[in-house]
Specification:
The protein is an all-alpha fold and about 25 residues long. It is about 95% helix and about 0% strand. The chain contains one helix and no strands. The longest helix has 25 residues. It is rod-shaped, with a radius of gyration of 12 Å. The N and C termini lie far apart (about 40 Å).
Amino acid sequence: MRKLIAEFTGTAFITAAVIGSAIMATN
């Protein structure tokens, strides 16, 4: 269970970083 939460958090962090980079690039 703890590993699943860690994986989800890591994936969400990477996704947020990619989306943030895309927003910064378009602005």
